[in-house]
Structure of NAD(P)(+)--arginine ADP-ribosyltransferase:
Amino acid sequence: MASSAEINAQRNRVFDVGREPLKMLLPICGYEDAPLVSLEKAVKPLLTILPDLKYHAHIAKRESAEKPANGLTRDESAAIILYSMEGESREKSLYYTLNSILRSENRSKLEPWFLYLKLFMSGLTRLPSARQFVYRGVKMDLSKRYKKGDVFVWWAFSSCSASLEALENEDFLGRTGRRTLFTIDCDNGKDISQHVYYQLEKEILLPAASQFEVVASLEPADGFHIIQLKEIQPKVDLLHPVSIILKSNTEPLSVTKQDTQNMVPNLMSSKVGHLKIVEQPTNTTVQQSDASKPTELLLIPTESKFKLELPRSDSILNITTKSQWTESAITIAGGYGKGNGLNQLNKPCGIYVDDDHTVFIADTDNHRIVEWQIGKKTGKIVAGGNGAGNRIDQLNQPTNVVLDNETNSLIICDCGNQRVLRWPRRHQASGEILIGNINCCGLAIDVHGFLYVSDTRKDEVKRFRIGESRGTKVAGSAGRGDNLNQLNWPTHIFVDRDQSVYVADTWNHRVMKWMKDAKEGIIVAGGRIEGNAPCQLSGPKGIFVDQSGTVYVADGGNHRVMLWYNGATQGEMIVGENIRGQQANRLADPEALSFDKYGNLYIVDWGNHRIQRFSLEK
């Protein structure tokens, strides 16, 4: 079952028809001459308009497939995914802001959008066009604005449904009240359903500056109007076309003769303006790295000792840093592709390792918590699993889970519902709400039983007594930013015995330590500009800290795990190799990490939908 957020996102785009100006504006042009760049570069000019776009773009890039459908590059697919994403409000969403500017008479407002629009249109143009009937509607009477014989232009991109039955759903048009349904005979509809953030009903996107003629206007029932439209070709290009380059400028692409034969008919069938195909030199293949070569593992050179301290446990393991973890991992959960089977995971985000070799996994996009015994091929659902929703027996994209031994219950960060739940292990039918109205991401419990929760909306971490809804701020105190008293999208957290809070300050690309009662934090890892050098991090997520203050970081954007000694100015890579991959010695956007009492390292391999264990070598 689709969540309310998923339904609202698509409904807002489909219902956007009421904002069309229905008057002739200047053509949309200029963007077609912009360079084709990565999504990250394409959104930079827009950050003053939509500050959260940087984070949404990162998520969209992660959501995009390694080899997207329809021959799109990863950046082109991610640009379409980004368009489909809903912000904190409709007004803060990219699609809403872009479409508002496309409807504006002032074409100069479009200039900051040129890089993004070029990438977005490049992706749309690669999608095949087909003549079909699509549907769009709004809960208002628009019949007086659309008379039979009228010719007009919809200047914004138009989201439509391929299913009339879908619009009859109460979440969309419904069957009562004032409604206007547009049935559209289109030639240029683009099926973007394989490149959207929320995959619900099949969504067809009509290009900006599409021109239509009203064929008929009917009122089959009181208050219900049907307006039949036919797409027609304008006499001039109202949306200037983009040039398609068979080899992408944004990431390497291997093109075979068969690929070209499959790609060109799709490109030629496109009617987004007049398509131009630019021929490139024939050397369009790229050499692939030899996956059979073993990964070189960076070893820790010193012989100093440190201690691993398990959360909420008195079990402390002494090992020396002469020890090393195995070069290749064993998959202990998932690993059978993305899915909802009991042997599968779907973009897991959090993990808790219990002392008895049981792991609890926040199986995020399956909206459930899974318990997995080491050595078993399948897991057991212990919370959620009833589809995405906000009922007390449902979860919506849980991102973290910890075990509260005192009550034998799971504490769950139910991110999509903006709440923290306690879910008893004995009676697994439903949970109870501990904290509401919080954009939670990370959880931790200290040795005194206090609960710590990170809030990505308020950019802070709070401490709670379990069972109480009012907490005390312990990290982040001055809003979003990169000063020492600020955080920028805090995700995973760790609390040591002194109640110092370590925070993965994700979009500042650093890990911060906030000592108890401190007014500002200390940078303990990263903190310079984003990068993959030993002194840099890229979107750090999971963290773990041993008793000597050594910090272990899941360096998500660099697909590696880093170790930073207490006071060090740079880290050392212990797992991964800065390259995304599916092999046993590689990771894809590692999201979280933990250790068992034997020193084995567990990593949530988000992009590969699996949990990896790198064993400690004696």
